[in-house]
């Protein structure tokens, strides 16, 4: 999470004192409409020394950002110790301000569980949980799911009315995630957490409906489950979702008169207003100074980070990775974890979830974006975009599936069966030149087309230099500067080739290769049609040596007892 500013300690103390004083003026009964009444708190069975208050506060800050934006949030805190997972969900009928107030109250109460490794709390308007494993897809948990029955018993027909109303809200909530119903004098609300799909939502609400109907004939019942909530009552306890709240429906005082409540509201408004003004002024000043620092340092933020097509929405990547499901994790390093995701277009990507601390977030993130985005190479994974508007920074790369690296870099190896005739002609020419050289008639290898265009000495030097370059041992091959001198200096003494580029095929072990005969009729006919000095077709054979690592082709003539190794050349 980005650290926008460092508030001085004296300012924090002053704000806390003012807000604490104002909270003492608010009557307890006035909080019921915001849904912050505590319903159930459960802490884990064992303590985790590394589940410190600082980790709890850090992940709650991350979730707080999402709750304020959309009414729910799910986050993972990765560090040197065990990870921490958190989930918060408000009832959809709450206004944003009431939702955030409910979350703040739940966060305060849930802190009692620290240093326990897990904890969960249900308030009337929201749910908050943290644990040391990923639980956001859990729908039911028999060890923690509870039912609460309140209010006295009512008429005999309550069971029928409750069953009908609960059935209605359950069916609708499975499709929409949330539903309310107030027919036949029974009011009901059902909601699944936003991280569940329809299948898991249906499982949770089905079990919750069974549990809540055990409360009949009580006038009110609640099912507080791991992945959903279900409640019915004889009194309307939820807000209208679509229309705005009616001012006439708000509670008014009758006997005491408006004087006391007017004074309380006025004092509270003044205190909160002054606090917000001071805090906003400090934030503006600090942000302006931060911008000046970034401007002086040249600026780390890339201009293309906000370009359409490069910037991804955080919620889109969150849904693409199934809320960063551990099942989609491809790997994890010291500063980030990588998840496999599928975009709405069907494209598969790799999402890198950075875990920088607050001090190094900006510099580390933009340094990586600037570095990788400037590299365009077929052997480097391409950076498709990033997300910097959410509670954490994300990088989106193209997805490269696991496999052999040589297949990604080079593809399939070509063999002689699909080589062009020119390759075969080169092989045969090399065999013939060596044969003529050994017979002291190297100029017989000159193409008739070149007759009269170069001297015998030039042709002999060129062919002999070529044979030197084809020697099997690297140390015997001349350098390019030496080749240039051979071809340009008339008085240069060209050495004789010492090692023929041929392999004694009969000396190979039968365990090391498998030999199969390969016909080259097309290559021979093509080569024979263009030259008149080559060996007869019947005197040449080409064979293939296949091993587990590479292919080698051997060409030769029986009468000269020489064979040519056409495998990959030995590197210089």
From TrEMBL:
It comes from Vigna mungo (Black gram). Keywords: ATP-binding, Kinase, Membrane, Nucleotide-binding, Receptor, Repeat, Serine/threonine-protein kinase, Signal, Transferase, Transmembrane, Transmembrane helix. Residues 34-135, 140-237 form the Gnk2-homologous domain. One of its GO terms (molecular function) is protein serine/threonine kinase activity. Residues 324-572 form the Protein kinase domain. Residues 1-31 form the signal peptide. The chain crosses the membrane at residues 260-285. The keyword Zinc-finger does not apply. This is Cysteine-rich receptor-like protein kinase 42.
